[in-house]
Design a protein that fits this description.
This protein has 13 helices and 14 strands. The chain has about 450 residues and is α/β, with parallel strands linked by helices. The structure holds phosphoenolpyruvate (PEP) and cobalt (II) ion (CO).
């Protein structure tokens, strides 16, 4: 910063507000050991550099405002739960690659700008329906994500360890460093569309992608020959997002923007509040209502119009474009009746949030053999229901939020590879919810591109 730039301090009531959540009920927090260990860790994290910058956060808000207004589409994707051991160059690269390929399919297929966001570089904490897990008569604390405890089923590993918050910060930093290198350093260059597909080309979705990449190649070569300057195509904007679950971590990562004295959570560009922690009058919504990042809130089928209005009044009182994203996760069987009243209600109280579909979390099933899974057909059906509801309401279906991996895992049933219940066990790697594999992700992108293309041409 230059010496002439003014440094604006936060007003005392703004600073005090950042800790108001401590006086409220708070769900889904670890039980940290007594003796001040978490306070010491929070102080350590508060002194570490920010992971993202306020200017980037403002830029994302502008992009999301465009999407809310029907001028862009948001693609959010990544693991249900990232793990520390999974933060390898190969896995990070293949996830980024899958998201880039999906984005190309959407951009080209629907002629609409795509805002790219990874559910990554910080997605290390999970809400759980039960505090404990029992195996063969032994009961231990449930796995809450690598930032809280270990997956291994031993008392030592399942103990809640605040030092994991520090490791989470450093793993997020290393992941983000590689993501920035991939997306800024030439790997994401649009002239590389073919290379992202390498090693996959025998699958139907990948073959379809090859065709599309060929068309893009020809278009780019034509434009180059015509003298267009393609420097812009070398880089892509790529943003990070995760569920803001662990209050001590998000609070410690919140810094004051010296340009204007406002608080920003520098753990990610975008944070969301999950279906299990979005209670009005509780800690999570109170906290995010006081930070300047664009905020997501998951919305399940039980949400009422009245509750939605109070939520919008709290998180987006000024009805600021790009501020609030509602991530609906209704289930394929519910979306067509549960979403329309909410779309209508939002118009009534003059809110134009960005609406995104999460077609994963309302469609979970467990197989007789005990695997948590989802049917690809249910995922597709919820996406179609989402587009239908928005078409009827005259509102813009602004994006999609999916759990995916760039690898060839077998965690969700169906898709053109026809993964069945028997196949699930061959490569089931998720420690949490089942993810679409690389090919299912691409297939879904083609389908969304078709829906979006129809919507655009109306
Ligand atoms: C998730 O996104 O992994 C999740 C737990 O979602 P939800 O809060 O919608 O259940
Ligand atoms: Co999940």
């Amino acid at each position: 910063m230059s010496a002439t730039e003014p440094v604006v301090a936060a007003r005392p009531e703004v600073l005090a507000g950042l800790d108001h959540w401590r006086t409220l009920p708070v769900a889904q927090q670890p039980t940290w050991p007594d003796g001040g260990a978490v306070e010491a860790v929070a102080a350590e994290i508060a002194a570490l550099p920010p992971l993202v910058f306020a200017g980037e956060i403002d830029q994302l808000r502008a992009r999301l405002a465009a999407a809310a207004a029907g001028r862009a589409f948001v693609l959010q994707g990544g693991d249900c739960a990232e793990t520390f051991s999974g933060a390898t160059a190969d896995q990070i690269r293949s996830r980024v690659k899958t998201i880039l390929q999906m984005a190309v399919v959407l951009t080209y297929g629907a002629s609409v700008p795509v805002v790219k966001m990874g559910r990554m570089a910080g997605q290390f904490a999970k809400p759980r329906s039960s505090d404990t897990e029992t195996r063969d008569g032994t009961t231990l604390p449930a796995y809450r994500g690598d930032m809280v405890n270990g997956y291994e089923f031993t008392a030592a590993s399942r103990a809640h360890d605040p030092q994991r918050l520090v490791r989470g910060y450093h793993t997020a930093a290393a992941t983000l460093n590689l993501v920035r290198a991939f997306t800024q350093g030439g790997f994401a260059d649009l002239r590389e569309v073919h290379s992202w597909n390498r090693g996959f080309a025998t699958n139907p979705a990948n073959q379809r992608y090859e065709g599309l990449a060929g068309e893009i190649d020809r278009a780019v070569r034509f434009m180059e020959a015509a003298g267009a300057d393609f420097d812009e195509l070398k880089r892509v904007e790529f943003y990070t997002a995760h569920e803001a679950l662990l209050m001590e971590y998000e609070r410690a990562m919140t810094r004051i923007d010296s340009r204007n004295g406002t608080p920003v959570d520098t753990s990610a560009h975008f944070v969301w509040i999950g279906e299990r922690t979005r209670q009005l009058g509780h800690a999570h919504l109170d906290f995010v209502s006081r930070i300047r990042n664009p905020i997501g809130v998951k919305v399940g089928p039980a949400m009422t119009a009245d509750e939605l209005e109070r939520l919008v009044d709290l998180v987006d009182p000024d009805r600021e474009p790009g501020r609030l994203t509602l991530i609906t996760r209704m289930g394929a069987g519910r979306i067509r009746d549960a979403l329309p009243p909410l779309l209508e209600a939002a118009q009534r109280f003059e809110s134009t949030p960005l609406w995104i579909t999460d077609p994963m979390h309302g469609n979970g099933i467990t197989t007789p053999t005990g695997y948590k899974t989802r049917r690809f057909d249910d995922v597709v059906d919820e996406v179609r229901g989402f587009f239908e509801a928005h078409r009827h309401a005259g509102t813009w279906p602004g994006g999609i939020h999916v759990e995916l991996t760039g690898d060839d895992v077998t965690e969700c049933l169906g898709g053109s590879e026809h993964i069945d219940e028997e196949t699930l066990s061959t490569r089931y790697e998720s420690l949490c919810d089942p993810r679409l594999n690389h090919m299912q992700s691409l297939e879904l992108a083609f389908l969304v591109a078709e829906e979006l293309g129809q919507r655009r041409s109306r």
